[in-house]
């Protein structure tokens, strides 16, 4: 651990979302529907609309860098890591169209980062439904656009993240030193979760647990030990089912240990999660299991399931050591991004 030479209140918020203010009519551009459009129905507010149906209302802090910076200053956030809203992944789209959309999103995101490189870091989007297109776009994000890496979904249509088709993408990310942030989307069993906001409350944590377990049991972490990968929302329900995963590995290796001979516990501390647990006891458990140096502040700004004041839970936990607090507030994020903390000053 490097001795801190930074101001004590430094905060890097690893988990925030951004959109362009406008983009072309994608139905017209690609010839079919299913894509998000923005309806700026009143000043500083817009509706995300899919095929004429309202999906979500957002405010201009989702697209206006000036307002984001004002709110960052009010909330004490020094650096935001920007990534698109997951509904924009569009892995269901034709690969060439998904690639075109990713380029549109990435070019806009990169322009925001270039204008404020001390305050914003970018994670791009890639058309993972076609790894042959995703890899060049990953390379463009890192080499040409100056982004720290990419954000991806928790699965790609029928592929979990251990799918052989996706391994070359993860291998290239590891070679490039690119950060990969995994955000749950396209949640399972929507027919069973039509009410109570359950896709967000239950589906998302489950998606993250499936993603981690798939990569773990599938040997992706074993084969790519240098891969820097982080899972949103504290890794979802993974921490709650870890004992069951470990027991299953030991009890039925014929079913579980078929692609990787090592138990789940070997990989604790080999991947990152963000801090967005909404629960101090759960965050303490994560620290115990994977270490504070693998947990980074994440708020999910600017959405309502996020932490309204980024880092408030961490700062309220008086039992943390100063070293743990520094890891949670900025050092873990900097390491995940491949940046020295001092570079943000």
Your description of this structure?
The protein is an alpha/beta fold and 345 residues long. Helices cover 39% and strands 17% of the residues. It has twelve helices and eleven strands. It has helices at 26-30, 65-75, 95-115, 131-144, 167-176, 198-217, 220-223, 238-251, 253-256, 280-290, 312-316, 322-337, and strands at 12-18, 36-42, 45-50, 53-59, 79-84, 120-124, 149-153, 179-183, 228-231, 272-274, 295-296. A hairpin with a 2-residue loop joins strand 2 (36-42) and strand 3 (45-50). Helix 3 runs parallel beside helix 4 (131-144) and helix 6 runs parallel beside helix 8. The longest helix is centred in the N-terminal third of the chain and has 21 residues, at 95-115. The radius of gyration is 19 Å and the shape is globular.
What does the secondary structure layout of this molecule look like, with pairings?
Layout lengths: L11 E7 L7 H5 L5 E7 L2 E6 L2 E7 L5 H11 L3 E6 L10 H21 L4 E5 L6 H14 L4 E5 L13 H10 L2 E5 L14 H20 L2 H4 L4 E4 L6 H14 L1 H4 L15 E3 L5 H11 L4 E2 L15 H5 L5 H16 L8
Strand content: 15-25%
- The overall number of domains is 1
How many helices? The count is 12
Class of secondary structure makeup = alpha/beta
Estimated radius of gyration: 19 Å
Helix-strand pattern: EHEEEHEHEHEHEHHEHHEHEHH
CATH topology, by name, is TIM Barrel
How many strand elements? 11
Which ranges are low-confidence, i.e. pLDDT below 50, for 5 or more consecutive residues?
A: 1-7
Biggest sheet character = 8 strands, parallel
> What proportion of the residues is helical, as a percent range?
25-40%
């Amino acid at each position: 651990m490097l001795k801190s030479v930074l101001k004590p209140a430094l905060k890097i918020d690893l988990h925030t979302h951004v959109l362009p203010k406008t983009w072309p009519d994608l139905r017209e551009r690609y010839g079919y529907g299913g894509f998000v459009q923005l309806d700026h129905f009143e000043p500083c507010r817009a509706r995300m609309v899919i095929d004429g149906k309202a999906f979500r209302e957002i405010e201009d802090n989702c697209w206006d860098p000036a307002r984001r910076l004002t709110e960052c200053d009010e909330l004490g956030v020094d650096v935001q890591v920007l990534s698109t809203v997951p509904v924009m992944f569009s892995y269901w789209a034709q690969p060439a169209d998904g690639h075109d959309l990713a380029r549109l999103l990435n070019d806009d995101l990169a322009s925001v980062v270039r204008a404020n490189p001390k305050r914003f870091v970018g994670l791009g989007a890639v058309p993972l439904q076609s790894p042959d297109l995703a890899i060049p776009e990953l390379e463009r994000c890192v080499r040409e656009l100056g982004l720290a890496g990419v954000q991806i979904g928790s699965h790609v249509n029928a592929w979990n993240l251990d799918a052989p088709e996706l391994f070359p993408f993860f291998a290239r990310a590891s070679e490039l030193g690119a950060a990969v942030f995994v955000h749950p989307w396209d949640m399972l069993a929507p027919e069973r979760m039509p009410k109570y906001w359950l896709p967000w409350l239950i589906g998302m944590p489950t998606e993250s647990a499936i993603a981690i377990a798939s990569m773990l049991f599938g040997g992706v972490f074993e084969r790519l030990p240098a891969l820097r990968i982080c899972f949103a929302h504290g890794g979802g329900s993974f921490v709650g089912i870890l004992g069951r995963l470990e027991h299953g590995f030991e009890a039925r290796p014929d079913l579980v240990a078929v692609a990787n001979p090592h138990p789940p516990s070997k990989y604790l501390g080999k991947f990152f999660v963000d801090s967005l647990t909404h629960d101090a006891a759960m965050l303490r458990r994560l620290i115990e299991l994977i270490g504070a140096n693998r947990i980074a502040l994440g708020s999910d700004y600017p959405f309502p399931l996020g932490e309204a004041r980024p880092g408030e839970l961490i700062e309220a936990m008086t039992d943390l050591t100063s070293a743990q607090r520094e890891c949670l507030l900025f050092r873990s994020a900097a390491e995940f991004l491949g940046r020295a903390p001092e570079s943000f000053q």
